[in-house]
């Protein structure tokens, strides 16, 4: 039998973990795992509901991280720190991949499995996710009506209202392009920020020019590619959600009151940062 102690003796040099804490552990103080792992309150008796709830919570956490990265990128762009913006976007690409991988446990729900707890969800729907809405607003998908469901939650409403009127990540990109001397139309630069961004042929021409001249525009090209990665992965999230929904409930109406799959199909068909996709036909 080994005589080596497997617990840390305070004061004695040791290569085993410390077990002796007066209060909660420093891990708990930092991570708040006790709070986090006691936020799961399923509404039905169905054992399958737990993974639905936790997947939704996990996705909310990823939305929060991604919003943080895009706000970091927006600030960096505003201050002409383009490399830092590209770094933040690059981190968000890996986070979007992790977000999308979390569809796995729900991607093959059958209608009977979903029905076993669907009624318990009442009118609850991911459509009411405020963090997802901030994420969409940062992409330029603005809409004042999306604030309405949050009227009863003053802090959430105030955060969303601020985000509605702030420049999106893409607005910051366009302002940077203008500061670099590229001919972004005044109407685009001075657009009403609370409205959905509409693609512009002049902006499409600017991206086509950047892509056609990689030697001259290497930094802007890297920015364009980072945004394209983001756009592709958001599109994938929307489409994975659409397919999971189609598998779980066919063409029934959604718990949030929409037409369900038919409504999601329209949302999923949209391109994120549209000119970055259409410009490719002209390079
Ligand atoms: C497989 C299970 C799921 C089904 C059947 C489903 C179904 C739906 C439906 C039908 C809608 C349209 C609005 C409505 O009428 O409710 C919707 C919207 C939405 N769901 Fe899900 N959903 C599922 C899982 C999730 C998960 C895990 C999340 C993660 C947070 C999520 C987030 C969202 C969001 C953000 C929207 C709004 C999309 C937009 O505004 O474009 N859903 N969902």
Automatic annotation (TrEMBL):
Binding residues annotated for substrate, in chain numbering: 118, 255
Binding site for heme: 241
Keywords assigned by UniProt, alphabetized: Dioxygenase, Heme, Iron, Metal-binding, Oxidoreductase, Tryptophan catabolism
Name of one Pfam family that matches: Trp_dioxygenase
EC number(s) reported in the record: 1.13.11.11
Catalysed reactions, as listed in the record: L-tryptophan + O2 = N-formyl-L-kynurenine
Cofactor dependence: heme
This protein's pathway: Amino-acid degradation; L-tryptophan degradation via kynurenine pathway; L-kynurenine from L-tryptophan: step 1/2
HAMAP family: T23O
Function statement: Heme-dependent dioxygenase that catalyzes the oxidative cleavage of the L-tryptophan (L-Trp) pyrrole ring and converts L-tryptophan to N-formyl-L-kynurenine. Catalyzes the oxidative cleavage of the indole moiety.
Subunit structure: Homotetramer.
Family: Belongs to the tryptophan 2,3-dioxygenase family.
Name the UniProt record assigns to this protein: Tryptophan 2,3-dioxygenase
The organism of origin for this protein: Streptomyces hebeiensis
Taxonomic path: Bacteria, Bacillati, Actinomycetota, Actinomycetes, Kitasatosporales
This protein's encoding gene: kynA
């Amino acid at each position: 039998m080994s005589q080596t102690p497997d617990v840390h003796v305070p004061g004695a040099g040791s290569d085993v973990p410390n077990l002796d804490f007066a209060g909660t552990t420093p891990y708990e103080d930092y991570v708040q795992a006790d709070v986090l792992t006691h936020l799961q309150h399923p509404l039905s008796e169905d054992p399958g509901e737990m993974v639905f709830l936790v997947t939704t919570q996990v996705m909310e956490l990823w939305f929060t991280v991604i919003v943080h990265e895009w706000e970091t990128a927006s600030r960096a762009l505003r201050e002409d720190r383009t490399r830092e913006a590209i770094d933040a976007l690059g981190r968000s690409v890996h986070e979007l991949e992790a977000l999308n991988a979390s569809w796995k446990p729900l991607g093959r729900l059958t209608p009977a499995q979903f029905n076993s707890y669907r009624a318990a969800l009442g009118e609850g729907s991911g459509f009411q996710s405020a963090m997802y809405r901030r994420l969409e607003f940062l992409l330029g998908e603005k809409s004042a009506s999306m604030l309405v469901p949050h009227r009863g939650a003053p802090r959430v409403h105030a955060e969303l209202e601020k985000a509605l009127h702030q420049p999106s990540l893409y607005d910051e990109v366009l302002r940077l392009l203008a500061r670099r001397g590229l001919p972004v139309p005044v109407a685009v630069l001075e657009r009403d920020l609370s409205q959905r961004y509409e693609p512009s042929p002049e902006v499409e021409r600017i991206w086509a020019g950047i892509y056609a001249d990689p030697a001259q525009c290497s930094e802007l090209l890297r920015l364009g590619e980072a945004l394209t990665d983001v756009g592709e992965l958001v599109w994938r999230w929307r489409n994975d959600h659409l397919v999971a929904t189609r598998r779980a409930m066919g063409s029934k109406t959604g718990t949030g009151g929409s037409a369900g799959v038919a409504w999601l199909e329209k949302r999923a068909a949209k391109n994120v940062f549209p000119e970055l996709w259409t410009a490719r036909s002209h390079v």
